């Protein structure tokens, strides 16, 4: 009997291995580039986790290339607008115009550019699979000092989250839910100067 069981063991192992689920594989950079380039208008809810552990939430609207709007929930009326190659941060507690800086100096430029090519030389720092998701760490290859962004994709693929790592070593995580694609969004939705005028903090 023992010899019989021993003889069966290899066959049993082969049978089990044939039905075991295959290990998840990371999606290729070409597949992810094609997916990002296919995105036109995107709307989603988001939860943002800041470097100090504090959280905020709201709605994000993306209109590629080059435009994004982050409306924060609650009564604070905080807003981040991206358009015209600039990022503007509207602080509801300030009577000053929005803080502005070039989009090109932030890792968000990686996903908002007209043609995303994650295969470009020195753009991707790491590319791995974790719990069925594909995680890509990317940077501006000409300016790695601007920080980098982790893009987290489901196997479908769908962009689930991003993590921005800034020049100072801090990080901000934005998790996306209830994503919808397509539809029309007016360009004025992203107009920094118009929003500043509406708030009574015009830009010189």
UniProtKB/TrEMBL annotation:
It comes from the Bacteria. Keywords: Lipoprotein, Signal. SUPFAM superfamilies: Prokaryotic lipoproteins and lipoprotein localization factors (SSF89392). Coiled coil: none annotated. This is Outer membrane lipoprotein carrier protein LolA. Gene3D superfamilies: Lipoprotein localisation LolA/LolB/LppX. Residues 1-22 form the signal peptide. It comes from Celeribacter halophilus.
């Amino acid at each position: 009997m023992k010899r019989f069981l021993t003889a069966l063991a290899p066959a049993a192992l082969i049978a089990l291995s044939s039905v075991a689920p295959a290990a998840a594989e990371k999606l290729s950079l070409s597949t992810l580039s094609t997916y990002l380039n296919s995105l036109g208008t995107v709307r989603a809810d988001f939860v943002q986790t800041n470097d100090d552990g504090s959280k905020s939430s709201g709605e994000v609207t993306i209109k590629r290339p080059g435009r994004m709007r982050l409306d924060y929930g609650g009564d604070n009326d905080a807003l981040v607008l991206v358009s015209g190659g600039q990022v503007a941060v509207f602080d509801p507690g300030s009577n000053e115009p929005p803080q502005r800086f070039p989009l090109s100096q932030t890792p968000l430029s990686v996903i908002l550019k007209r043609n995303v090519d994650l295969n470009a030389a020195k753009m991707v720092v790491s590319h791995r699979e974790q719990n069925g998701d594909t995680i890509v760490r990317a940077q501006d290859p000409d300016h790695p000092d601007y920080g980098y962004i982790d893009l987290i994709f489901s196997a479908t693929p769908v962009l689930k989250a991003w993590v921005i790592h800034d020049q100072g070593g801090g990080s901000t995580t934005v998790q996306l839910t209830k994503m919808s694609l397509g539809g029309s969004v007016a360009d004025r939705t992203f107009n920094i100067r118009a929003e500043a005028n509406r708030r009574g903090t015009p830009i010189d």
